[in-house]
UniProtKB/TrEMBL annotation:
Residues 53-232 form the Ribosomal RNA methyltransferase FtsJ domain. It comes from Pelagibacterium halotolerans (strain DSM 22347 / JCM 15775 / CGMCC 1.7692 / B2). Specifically methylates the uridine in position 2552 of 23S rRNA at the 2'-O position of the ribose in the fully assembled 50S ribosomal subunit. GO terms for molecular function: rRNA (uridine-2'-O-)-methyltransferase activity. It catalyses: uridine(2552) in 23S rRNA + S-adenosyl-L-methionine = 2'-O-methyluridine(2552) in 23S rRNA + S-adenosyl-L-homocysteine + H(+). Keywords: Cell cycle, Cell division, Cytoplasm, Methyltransferase, rRNA processing, S-adenosyl-L-methionine, Transferase. One of its GO terms (cellular component) is cytoplasm. This is Ribosomal RNA large subunit methyltransferase E. The active site is at 189 (proton acceptor).
Length: 238
């Protein structure tokens, strides 16, 4: 996989001149203008478009997989919060999922365009019947890896936002303990904030190894990191 874009001329005047500046529209807030400008000048966004990935977030899974060898041919994969489908695209390619008999399952309450090789479910993962619906799509088989790139809508209040994302991760982890095959892996996005101790303790009881990782494509100014738990012990330890 290509490395993170770099260049000897980084920071020189010529490069600064190439950056796209976005004027603040009357109906656009300052924060949304900053977000748009960042997107337009993000090399990963342009690269994703050129290489056929649906979102820059695909590179996060590609980089995590490259370093930790998370995905292997024949694996059954569940992708929670799958929209717009970038992680499903990466998983399908890595596990060689057959479009006629998909071994990659994705769920999101947002509508997604089809991903060949993935079975997609438009549904809120927190719905009571969502786990059974996913299990049915897996053909009644256990999963080898559960991926979660879910993030709750932000309020702008960091403690509240952190609690919301941790609550989502806890729901995802609880689901993983029910659906993973022995030796399975759980990967979830979290945000640094110091209130993960109970979640970490639970994962350490149930997995052989648990650690955090921040892929290069994760913006340096972002507090996001990925929690990786490997080697599911096969029997839930509450």
């Amino acid at each position: 996989m290509p490395n993170k874009p770099t260049g000897k001329g980084a920071g020189r005047r010529g490069d600064r001149d190439l950056k796209t500046r976005v004027k603040t529209a009357k109906k656009r807030t300052t924060s949304s203008t900053r977000w748009l400008q960042r997107q337009l000048n993000d090399p990963y966004v342009a690269r994703a478009r050129a290489e056929g990935w649906r979102a820059r977030s695909a590179y996060k899974l590609l980089e995590l997989d490259e370093k930790y060898e998370l995905l292997k041919p024949g694996m059954r994969v569940v992708d929670l919060g799958a929209a717009p489908g970038g992680w499903c695209q990466v998983a399908v390619k890595a596990v060689k999922s057959d479009p006629e008999n998909p071994t990659v399952v994705g769920i999101d309450y947002l509508e997604m365009d089809p991903v060949p090789g993935a079975a997609l479910l438009q549904k809120d993962f927190t719905d009571e019947d969502a786990p059974q619906a996913l299990f049915d799509l897996l053909g009644g088989h256990k999963a080898d890896i559960v991926l979660s790139d879910m993030a709750a809508p932000t309020t702008g209040h960091k403690p509240t936002d952190h609690l919301r994302i941790i609550a989502l991760v806890e729901i995802a982890a609880d689901y993983a303990l029910d659906v993973l095959a022995p030796g399975g892996t759980f990967v979830a996005k979290v945000f640094q904030g110091g209130t993960e101790h109970e979640l970490l303790a639970m994962l350490k009881r149930n997995f052989a190894t648990t650690f955090h990782a921040k892929p290069p494509s994760s913006r340096s100014e972002s507090a996001e990191t990925y929690l990786i738990a490997r080697g599911f012990k096969g029997q839930r330890q509450d």
